[in-house]
Description:
The protein has helices at residues 3-6, 27-40, 48-61, 66-73, 78-84, 86-103, 107-110. It is mainly alpha-helical and 116 residues long.
Amino acid sequence: xxxxxxxxxxxxxxxxxxxxxxxxxxxxxxxxxxxxxxxxxxxxxxxxxxxxxxxxxxxxxxxxxxxxxxxxxxxxxxxxxxxxxxxxxxxxxxxxxxxxxxxxxxxxxxxxxxxx
Length: 116
């Protein structure tokens, strides 16, 4: 059955993975299905949760604000995200500092800007 066939009995849980009636799946059900699919596809062993960690890592590496990533992950506070991804945050901070430095002209380029 699909959503239309369930009619008003279908539960809009807002989840990506649900039972036929829209209610929540147990997280282990999704994890086990993912593990079987990955193995069948010949992929190395990877946990479903690793996808969440990978997505957060990519978002932070791309310069997404840590508060945004923290909210997406549903962390209770920013400190959890900062502690978990501190190794990436340092790299992002360095990259941001380098981008800011690139905006400042080199001394030889500034010579003509001196006030007279």
